Amino acid sequence: MVRERRAARDGRRAREFEAFVAGAGGRLLHAATLLTGEPTGDTEAAERLLTAALARTYARWDRLRGEDPYDHTRRTLAALFAHRGHRYRRPRGGTLARLTPQERLVLVLRLYEGVAEEQTAAALGLPVERVRAICTRAVTAMRSAAARRGTTGTRPSAGTRSSAGTSSSVGRPPSAGTQSSAGTPPSTGGRAATGATGAGAGAGATGAGAGAGAETGADAGARAGAGAGTDAGAEAGAGAAP
């Protein structure tokens, strides 16, 4: 009887988690790709980083107690990247590759995710003024790069603004629950759910949580929906920020 209840609970948790990844995996992968500075289509490091974050979320799934799993995964993703930022200093050719890891992290949280300055500062353990200065420096660098390529005349469509008040395609993406524009989850998102579920379940069974060993390199898929934006759009959006 106990074994049956445990199996039922594990099955329910796996289904809930897989549904979460199907809806939010693409958005989270795009954020991870911006962080690692990789180009679209070559996201191996971002996939490993995201899988580790998802595995930790899965291991804590039953203890979230009403907490938004997307917010939890985003915080974990940011914390993991901050801890491993030295691994991503070498330019990889991605949208934000010209920025330092810290600049990427602040820019992604502030403009792509629309996290408030105070929340970003608390998450990174930095003063608000420091977060503001880093974000301004990163936006200036992106704007200068866009100007050098002659793209300063390109602005994102009106009405797309992040919560920070900046007009930007790096701003807030679709809600975490939305799926792809075709109405189905990204095909590779299921692999991330499976990899993270297996890693999290194994770690949970041993009481060790979902550690770095969960990084199995699963693919979380493309960013959900057409709102994902291209690399060029992200650069233009950052360049257009005041």
Query: Can you tell me the CATH class of one domain?
Result: Mainly Alpha
The portion of residues assigned to helices is 55-70%
CATH superfamily of one domain: PhyR, sigma-like (SL) domain
Question: Unreliable stretches, pLDDT < 50, 5 or more residues?
Answer: 155-169, 174-190, 201-242
Q: At CATH's second level, what is the architecture of one domain?
A: Up-down Bundle
Compute the number of helices.
8
Form type: elongated
Protein name: RNA polymerase sigma-70 region 4 domain-containing protein
InterPro entries: RNA_pol_sigma70_r4, RNA_pol_sigma_r3/r4-like, WH-like_DNA-bd_sf
Organism: Streptomyces violaceusniger
Pfam family, one: Sigma70_r4
State the main characteristics.
single chain, 242 residues, mainly alpha, Butyryl-CoA Dehydrogenase, subunit A, domain 3, 8 helices, 56% helix, elongated, disordered C terminus, WH-like_DNA-bd_sf, RNA_pol_sigma70_r4, RNA polymerase sigma-70 region 4 domain-containing protein, RNA_pol_sigma_r3/r4-like, DNA-binding transcription factor activity
Protein model, in words:
It is a single chain. By secondary structure, the chain is mostly helical. The chain has a domain of 150 residues: PhyR, sigma-like (SL) domain (Butyryl-CoA Dehydrogenase, subunit A, domain 3, Up-down Bundle). It contains 8 helices and no strands. Helix 1 crosses helix 3. It is elongated. The C terminus is likely disordered. One of its GO terms (biological process) is DNA-templated transcription initiation. One of its GO terms (molecular function) is DNA-binding transcription factor activity. InterPro entries: RNA_pol_sigma70_r4, RNA_pol_sigma_r3/r4-like, WH-like_DNA-bd_sf.
